[in-house]
Design brief:
298 residues, alpha/beta, Rossmann fold, Zinc Finger, Delta Prime, domain 3, 7 strands, 47% helix
Length: 298
């Protein structure tokens, strides 16, 4: 089921561009709409997909390829910034059958569709490594007639200009709270979701994890007035959880007045911590600095 985005669903079937760029906040439904679009392109009856013809019953799987960043590095370590690697876009040069190699875009798109249109989704176009982006560019320049490509990214500015210039942007807005309220009426949960249906579903599916995340974030915000040591302790607990820093950023926005200097500093501190972690600065150092900066705000 697709929540909201009715104007986009109306518009998409009429677009002729072979490459689309879906932008918008994470969890707002960009990938769900991409799957719906692929289903409609291949449905015997066209749009909206009927759900019962041969292609629809296949669940678009045969003519649909989704590429997303890999969270693990080659050495098997969890990467702090996941990346789409060259091997996911193009076959390795001069390799026979490579062990453990997944599907790549170039090989997959070279054969005809089983039904009507092959759809490739690059979910995380802003996380394409440079070699991967260059390889993808070759496809975007001359895609086969039977192919459509969908790039997904938070904002067009985060994607390489060479890719953006060859695609048509379709912008997704955060969902209005009234729509999300059809899924949950919990005010904490709706504040956490901030227009993202993905986050609502995650919180509903993982109530214990969600409770931990909000509880530990409350802990950090309460600790701010007690000084850096307490803040650091609370931060360490919070940062054990996935997605904690972005959520802390959103909560700090609510804790300080939007026009106040504290608000700007709080957001800047969180953004710097995120950048530092992405740049492999030691976690302890990042946490200590962040605790210091945040506790000075109160
Ligand atoms: Zn159908």
């Amino acid at each position: 089921m697709i929540l909201g985005h009715s104007r986009i669903l109306e518009l998409l079937p009429r677009l002729k561009a072979q490459t689309l760029l879906f932008t918008g906040p994470e969890g707002v439904g960009r990938r769900t709409v991409a799957r719906w679009f692929a289903a409609g392109l291949n449905c015997e009856g066209g749009f909206p997909p009927c759900g019962s013809c041969s292609s629809c019953r296949q669940g678009v799987l045969s003519d649909y390829l989704e590429i997303s960043p890999e969270a693990e590095t080659k050495s098997g370590k969890k990467a702090r910034v996941p990346q789409i690697r060259l091997e996911q876009i193009a076959p390795r040069p001069a390799s026979g059958q490579t062990e453990g190699a997944g599907e790549n875009v170039l090989d997959w798109i070279a054969t005809y569709p089983r039904y009507k249109i092959k759809v490739v989704v690059i979910d995380g176009a802003h996380l394409l490594g440079e070699p991967a982006a260059n390889a993808l560019l070759k496809v975007l320049e001359e895609p086969p007639m039977y192919a459509r490509l969908i790039l997904i990214a938070p904002e067009r500015e985060t994607v390489l200009p060479t890719l953006v210039s060859r695609s048509l942007e379709v912008a997704f807005a955060p969902l209005p709270e009234a729509l999300l309220r059809t899924l949950s009426s919990d005010p904490d949960l709706l504040a956490f979701a901030e227009g993202s249906v993905g986050r609502v579903r995650w919180a509903l599916d993982n109530p214990a994890e969600f409770g931990k995340l909000t509880g530990r974030t409350d802990g950090v915000i309460e600790a701010l007035s007690s000084g850096p040591a307490q803040t650091l302790e609370a931060l360490k607990l919070l940062l054990e959880l996935d997605g904690a820093l972005p959520y802390l950023g959103r909560r700090l926005r609510q804790a300080f007045a939007p026009q106040s200097p504290q608000y700007a500093q709080a957001l800047q501190s969180v953004a710097q911590a995120q950048d530092a972690l992405a740049a492999y600065v030691g976690e302890d150092l990042v946490q200590t600095l962040l605790a210091l900066r945040l506790s000075r705000l109160r």
